[in-house]
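Slides due. Your pick:
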Amino acid sequence: MYVTQALRRALQVKPHGTATIFRDRRRTWPQSVERIAKLAGGLKSLGLSAGGRAAILALNSDRYFEYLFAVPWAGGVTVPINTRLAPPEIEYILADSGSEILFVDENFKPALAALSGRMPSVRRIVYMGDDAPPAGAVAFESLARAPAVPDALVGDRELAGIFYTGGTTGKSKGVMLSHENLVINAANAVPGLGYSMDTIYLHSAPMFHLADGASTFAVTMVAGTHVFVPRFDPGDCLDAIQREKVTHGQFVPTMINMLANFPKVRDYDLSKLKRILYGASPMPEAVLLRALEIMPHCEFIHAYGMTEVAPIATLLDPRYTTLTGPYAGRIKSCGQAAILCEIKVADENGDEVPRGTVGEILIRGPNVMLGYWKKPEATAEALRGGWYHSGDGGKMDDEGFLYIVDRLKDMIISGGENIYSAEVESAISTLDGVAEVAVIGIPDDKWGEAVHAIVVPRAGRTLTADDVIRHCHTLIAGYKCPKGVTIRAESLPLSGAGKVLKTNLREPYWRGREKRVN
C-alpha cells in the first residue's frame, strides 16, 4: 500500500498510453514516470529528508501531478496548500508542518514576496513557472532533469500527506493521511466512480483539495489519462471536454449549473462524458434537470466525505440521481457506504440509533486518518471508540441510504469549501471596537451556505459591516470572510454554561426549512 505503486502498474499495462495533458504538453506514462523519478532525485539533492515535508502553492497542472508522486517517491510528505488562503494562513501552515521545501507557480509570486522572511523552516523554493525563477529559487524543470533515484517505497501506515482543514478553535488542523488511507480511498473510487483504463479525467476542481485528489490517485491506479485546466472556468472546461474527449469530471453543483447554463454550451460536443461526481451540497432539482438536458448521456454521482476519511465515505449510485421512475426519491440522500468503509448513525454514547433516527455520523475503515498533526487531544476526541466522529447529523434508512440533516460541529460549507466559524470569529475579534461576535451559516441559493457575522460593538463605538469585512480580508481567505454582517446593539444570547446560543441566531434564517444545512 504505497501511492507510487500505481505508477509502475500504469507503466506496465499502458506503456504507450497518455498519462497527462496540460495545454500543449502531452506525456506518456513512461515519460511521466521518468520525470517523477528525476524530480524525486532533484528533491533529494535539495536536501529533502526522509519524512520531510514539501509544500505546494500552485494552480492545477501536470507539474502539480508530478509533485504529488515525486515527493513520496523521494520518501517525503506532501503538504498541499489551499490557493485561496491569505498570507498569514499560509505562513501558519508552513510553520506548523515544518515544511522544508515550497513549490510555487507563477500565479503566486506575490505570495512569495508577502511571505519573505516569514518561512523559517523552508530551506528551498522550487519555481514551477516557465519564466525565470525568482531570486534564490530553483526551476522545476531543472529538477525534472536531475539523475533519477529509486522509489523509496515508503508505504502502508507511513505518513503520505498533511492536508489542512479549518480549525474548530480558530487554527487550521493538519489531517495526517497515510499511504494506506490514500490507496484504500482510490480503491473505493475506482468501482464507485466507474474508472477504467479508458478514463479521461478532467482536473478542474483545485488539486490541493482531496475531492479532486481522490481521482488523482484512482485514475492513476487504473492507468487512465489526466487532463488539467488551471482552475475552474466554464469555457475552459467545455473546451477541454470537447478537445480531449473527457469521460469523467468532478464539480460542485454550483459549477454544474455554470456549465449547463454557459451561453454557448450547445456548441460543444459533450457526448463522451460518462460520469460527473458532485458533492459538498445537494443537487438542486432545477440544476439536475438542466444538466440532464444538456448532457443526456452523462450520469451524476453524489459523494459525501471529508478530509479525515481521505475523503470518500458514501456514494450515491447514479441510477438514483433522477426525479422520475422506479429509482426516484433517493436524490436527497448522499448514498451508501463506500465498499471499504463502515458508517453508523450514533447517539452521544456511540451506540447506533434506530433507522430513521437522527444522530451523529460515525465512520470506520482503513481510509480514516492517522490523526491531526501535533494535536493528540484533538485526535483522541475525533477517533474515540475506534470511529471517526464526523460532527454531522444524519439519519439512515432501512437500506443503508444516508441523509444529512444537520451539522453538529460549528462549520459552514460554502461553494464546496469548509469554513469553521471559530476561524472567522477569531479574525473579527481582533478588530478594534468589537465586544462580541458570532458567525453562522445562512442559506444561499448559489453557494449553498453563506458566512454571516453578528457583531456587538463596544460601548460608545460605531462599526459598520464594511469595517468588519475589510478587516477579515487582511487576515483570512476571501471565501471565509462574511458576505453579510449584522451589527447588534444587545449582547448575544447565552446558555446557562455561557455559550452563545447560535441555534437562536440561526433560527430566523432557516425557519421553514426541513434541514438546518444547505
Observations:
- The chain has a mean pLDDT of 93.
- Residues 19 and 492 are 55 Å apart (CA to CA).
